[in-house]
Amino acid sequence: MRFSRLSDWLSWQERLHPSAIELGLERVRRTLARLGWRPPTVPVITVAGTNGKGSTVALLTRILTEAGYRVGTFTSPHLIRYNERIAIAEKEVSDASLLTAFERIDSARGGDTLTFFEFNTIAALLIFETAGVDVLVLEVGMGGRLDAVNVVDPDVAVITSIAVDHREWLGQDVEAIGAEKAGILRAGRPAIFGSRDMPRSVGSVAAELGSQLQCLGRDFDWERADESWSFKHETSDMEGLPLPALPGEVQLDNAAAALACLACVRHRLPVARSAIERGLVTVALPGRFQRIECETEWILDVAHNPAAASVLGRSLRSLAARRPCVAVCGVLGDKDLDNIYRELADVLDVWVVAGLQGQRALDSNTLARRLRDLGARIDSACEDVPQACARALHLAGREGRVAVFGSFLTVGPALQWLREHCVTLR
Question: Which CATH code, of 3.40.630.30, 3.50.50.60, 3.40.30.10, 3.90.190.20, is assigned to 290-421?
Answer without folding.
Answer: 3.90.190.20
